[in-house]
Design goal:
3 domains, alpha/beta, binds 4'-deoxy-4'-aminopyridoxal-5'-phosphate, single chain, about 10% strand, about 475 residues, seven-stranded mixed sheet, 16 helices, four-stranded mixed sheet, Aspartate Aminotransferase, domain 1, Chorismate Mutase Domain, subunit A
Amino acid sequence: MHLSQVQSNLVYKKMSDINNLRNKMDAVTLEMINLLKTRTDIAKEIGEIKKNIGKGVTDEEREDNLRGKIIQVSKEIGLDETLASKFLNFLLNESIKVQSENKQTHLSIFLKAKSLEQKGKKIIHMEVGEPDFLPPEIVKKSLTEVFEKGFMKYGQAKGMPVFREALAKYVSKKFNVEVTNENIIVSPGARFLIFSAISTLLNPGDEMIVIEPSWPAYKDCALNAGIKVRTINTTLEEKWEPSIERIKNAINTNTKMIVLNYPNNPTGKILPEKLQDIIIEVAKENNLYVLSDEIYSQYAKTNWKSILSYNYEKSIVTQSFSKSHAMTGFRIGYGIASKQVIEKIVKLEALCLTNVSEPIQYVAMKALDADTTNNSKIIQKRLDKLSKKAKELGLEFIIPDGAMYIFAKINQEGFDGVEFANNSLEKGLAVAPGEGFGNYKNFIRISACQDEKTLMEGMHILGNMMRDS
Ligand code: PMP
């Protein structure tokens, strides 16, 4: 036989080996798909039962238990633990998705309230966090100026240089830190920045720590990007302060980020400085990104310290004009981070938006000159009044240190916030069910975004409902 004939026979044999192995691999993959179907069906069944008995979707203890078993088996069979955990995270997220369908949050109650209003029903809105007052006067004037100033074109994805320059100065002065325009990224509201940061800095299978109760979008953004959320529950009894031990226990090689939001939505909590210092220390030790959503800093009543003051290169701070300047509909916010982090985040903004609307950036830049201290005073006064009334009604809560909400427990046997929020709509009051913020079935969130008289009317309806139930 010629040498080339020998070679060709060898290649033929090897190809046949590859084909055999590929057939085996296909069979394994198909088996996994069948098993995935079985697993998803079981998850759905569990979801139905959880819904019926009013149990929340997330069960950290149960997940941890399974995680432990998987790590053990991985060790025994010689499979990389990180890979096994990532695969488990994918499966857990799929279960959460099927069990979270039709979850009721403040947004679903808001939409229901809106459709009832269209039918002529009067509703008092204490479910949304949207200031009822107008943006600063300068905003109106700048809107008419935009045309002649020429801010109307495509621009840099990071934001207009002149605006970023102004923001850098504003942030440096306000928070007593040193940042430059290279540390600023403009976004259409803080929400998109949070989405972009989570989606670009983390990879599918990675883990992110969220302290609950929390604004639901952090979890939703993570789920959308295939990232597993590790929930740290806090309680009213513990004054909404997270346990460092629990945070440490939740960290493993896949953990890449921790999310903080103080002053907090929905509890109004600001962490004691010492506790916040320790959390940042733990984040640094474990090389975690710290995504600190500080959009309620304008409404901090007591001592509050921005995460910027730690000078940590892996922190991303989000800010917004929505609450501080009552500019929700303008959709404008910004982030502060290291140049390297911004370079990563901006890629998604460029891909999705090209740039944030130039006229709106101009208007927001002008709004930086406005004095917004009166906004804080108004909200503070309302929160004081709401707190007094809520106490009279026997609600259990901590007096908010900031933000625009009271997160209150209604201590009645079998109380269900979702049911209560739906029933109260019929009585002309919209409140947010606690379940939208985590496993807090017997809580509701009341927001201070109406004038005092309207808020008291709302509390009157609430009191009547509590008495009648
Ligand atoms: N973060 C928190 C904690 C919020 O409550 C909200 C809105 N309610 C946002 C971010 C979103 O803000 P923006 O309007 O700037 O997107």
